[in-house]
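Methods — Computational structure assignment.
A single polypeptide chain was analysed. Its primary sequence is given first, followed by the predicted tertiary structure written as C-alpha cells.
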Amino acid sequence: MSYRRVTPEEFERLHQDTAYASIYFGDYIETDEEIYVYFEALKASDRYLDLDKYWQSLHFLFTEEFPYERKTKTENWLHKVFMGGTPTQWESTYGMVRYFTASEVQEITKVLNHISTDHLQNSLNKLFESQEIRAYMEPHYLHLYTQLVKLFSRAAQEGEIILLSFN
C-alpha cells in the first residue's frame, strides 16, 4: 500500500489531462531500470509513503483487527486509513487508486494524532507474542506509524488530497 500527497490543482489536472496522469502514475515505464528510477524518486520525496505489506499489521495496531477478517466492528477513520477512500478512474496493481479529500485528510489527521501510546503498546503486545520478533519488528512499526502521521499531518496543513493504492 502506498500514499501520495497531491494538491487540489494536481488532482484536477490528473482528471483533465490523460497524458499528465499517464506520466504521473508511471504508465510509460517499461524496463526494470525505469521502474527502479521512478520509485526511488518517489521514495526520496516527502509526498510519498510506501507501507509495503506492513499496512496490514498497522491496520491491526490501529483497530486490533486484521483487515480481511470480515468481522470489522466499525467503519471508523482508523479502518478507513487503509480500506477507505473514494475510487478514481486510475488503475493500480490491485484495484483502483482511491483518494481522501482535503477535509477527510483533516479528520484522519486528528484521529491519527490522538492514538494513545497505551493503545499502540496494547496492540503491539497482541501482535507480537515472541520477544524475538518484538525486538526486531516493533521499532519498524513505530517508525511506519510516525511516517504515516507525518504524511497526513503535512497534507492536512497544506490542504492536500491523499491518493492511496495497492501496488
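Note: Residues 63 and 76 are 9 Å apart (CA to CA).
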